[in-house]
Amino acid sequence: MNEPKFIEHSDFVVREPGEMVERSDAFLDLMKRRRSVREFSDRPVPREVIENAILTAGRAPSGANKQPWHFAAISNPTLKKRVRDQVEEEERAFYGGKASDDWLEDLVPFGTNEHKPFLEIAPWLIAVFKQAYELDPETGEKAKNYYVPESAGLAAGFLIAALHNAGLATLTHTPSPMGFLNKVCGRPKNEHATMLVVAGYPADKVVVPDIDKKPLEDFSSWL
Question: pLDDT for 196-214, tens place per residue?
Answer without folding.
Answer: 999 999 999 999 999 999 9
